[in-house]
């Protein structure tokens, strides 16, 4: 991988089905250690953008344009056809559904680390424990012995972040990861997410409706009417666009 290149580079990306284009001609790039926030009105299909980048769009969706992960073109490749470094990890809205309710947390983290075993060896176990500690778990061994339903919503979302980091993905996509959390847990999760991106030198995408969360990211991409209406450093991008959505956001900032 060329460290001079963006970890994720998207050019002229168009996503749609047989009847319409959901998005047209999107272009952006994310450097190592940086997070891009994606905003736009509800219902425009922002999650479809994350699915296209991750490689698991529905069969009726057509993707054209360029998506490069670590300099490798992957726009035509589904998730499992890609090499491991080109497989983005995705943190979904509902962590309880994303986790296996019948498997203990330790088994799920071990599988994320090795991909073949639900039982970590001593060295792997120490790595998992250190990661959980860095994500704010005071009693990691007790957490490993728990089922997802025994954890709080914020704890489950932290486990999802841990699974993503253990998988060695270079791109970490968070799709409204805090929509079901209280404000305190929300702030903690988003802070941990950005911290992990910086420390591990990943490329982060945060799909969000939270203005403060978006403003805390390195770049902002705003989409409406199927097109990019603002892109760049968050405050600058919002103030340079005259689109109605950005005007409404500026009113909230005033």
UniProtKB/TrEMBL annotation:
Domain (ABC transporter): residue spans on this chain: 8-250
Membrane topology of the entry: Peripheral membrane protein
Cell compartments where the protein resides: Cell inner membrane
Classification via Pfam families: ABC_tran
Cited SMART domains: AAA
GO molecular function, a single term: ATP binding
GO cellular component terms attached to this protein's record: plasma membrane
Superkingdom of the organism of origin: Bacteria
Keywords in alphabetical order: ATP-binding, Cell inner membrane, Cell membrane, Membrane, Nucleotide-binding, Translocase, Transport
Main localization category: membrane
UniProt record similarity statement: Belongs to the ABC transporter superfamily.
Record-given protein name: ABC transporter domain-containing protein
Originating species: Vibrio inusitatus NBRC 102082
């Amino acid at each position: 991988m060329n460290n001079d290149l963006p970890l994720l580079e998207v050019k002229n990306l168009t996503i749609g089905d047989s009847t319409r284009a959901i998005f047209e001609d999107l272009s952006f790039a994310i450097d190592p250690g940086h997070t891009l926030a994606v905003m736009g009105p509800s219902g425009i299909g922002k999650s479809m953008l994350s699915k296209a980048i991750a490689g698991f769009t529905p069969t009726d969706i057509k993707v054209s344009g360029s998506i490069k992960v670590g300099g490798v073109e992957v726009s035509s490749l589904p998730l499992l056809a890609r090499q491991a470094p080109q497989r983005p990890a995705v943190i979904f809205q509902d962590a309880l559904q994303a986790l296996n309710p019948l498997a203990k947390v330790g088994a799920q983290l071990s599988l994320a680390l090795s991909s073949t075993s639900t039982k970590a060896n001593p060295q792997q176990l120490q790595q998992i424990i250190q990661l959980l500690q860095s994500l704010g778990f005071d009693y990691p061994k007790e957490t490993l012995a728990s089922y997802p339903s025994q954890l709080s919503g914020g704890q489950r979302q932290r486990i999802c972040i841990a699974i993503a980091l253990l998988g060695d993905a270079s791109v970490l996509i968070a799709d409204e990861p805090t929509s079901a959390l209280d404000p305190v847990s929300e702030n903690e999760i988003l802070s941990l997410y950005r911290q992990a991106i910086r420390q591990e030198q990943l490329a982060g995408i945060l799909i969000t409706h939270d203005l403060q969360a978006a403003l805390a990211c390195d770049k902002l991409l705003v989409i409406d009417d199927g097109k990019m209406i603002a892109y760049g450093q968050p405050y600058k991008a919002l103030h340079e666009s005259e689109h109605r959505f950005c005007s409404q956001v500026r009113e909230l900032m005033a």
